[in-house]
Design a protein that fits this description.
The chain is mainly alpha-helical. It has nine helices and three strands, in the order ββααβααααααα. InterPro entries: SKP1, SKP1-like, SKP1-like_dim_sf, SKP1/BTB/POZ_sf, Skp1_comp_dimer, Skp1_comp_POZ.
Length: about 160
């Protein structure tokens, strides 16, 4: 079956000709198509071309193969127990690209992709101490030792569980 195409334009002006059926996995694009049709290109000023390509790969894969709902809260740090092998491989990427895809999924309103990227981040931090999380995400500790001790004391009940 042949579907009509829509042109999507990345932040750098790169054009992607995409089946409407694939593009409308995004609520943002679906709404824009309903408002203005498919004759004019749809600009996506918040999404780089390399990121849009990955997002479209995800949408194309799932057009006839809906992703399963990811349970929340995530009770495991093993992503393979809650998503397909394809989805697990899809988010097994460099951290910067993972975050860019997460931002694009949020902007484009693609809930299953946003849930997948958030679940990946959740598996990265689940069961980790604050210092380990800072190392994973390259976050500088801006607390003084006194402030950190006060926060630990205030939230001691969290660590007792």
């Amino acid at each position: 079956m042949i579907f009509p195409k829509v042109k999507l334009v990345s932040s750098e002006g790169e054009e992607f000709s995409v089946d409407v059926q694939i593009a409308t996995a995004s609520t943002l694009i679906r709404n824009m198509i309903e408002d203005v049709g498919i004759d004019d290109p749809i600009p996506l000023p918040n999404v780089r071309g390399d990121v849009l390509r990955k997002v479209l790969d995800y949408c194309e894969h799932h057009v006839d193969n809906p992703s399963k709902e990811i349970p929340k809260p995530l009770r495991t740090n093993t992503l393979s127990t809650v998503v397909s092998e394809w989805d697990e491989e899809f988010v097994n990427i460099q951290q910067e690209m993972l975050f860019e895809i997460m931002l694009a999924a949020n902007y484009m309103d693609i809930k299953p992709l946003l849930d997948l990227t958030c679940a990946k981040v959740a598996t990265m931090i689940k069961g980790k101490k604050a210092e380990e999380i800072r190392q994973i995400f390259n976050i500088e500790n801006d607390f003084t030792p006194e402030e950190e001790a006060a926060v630990r004391e205030e939230n001691k009940w969290c660590e007792d569980t």
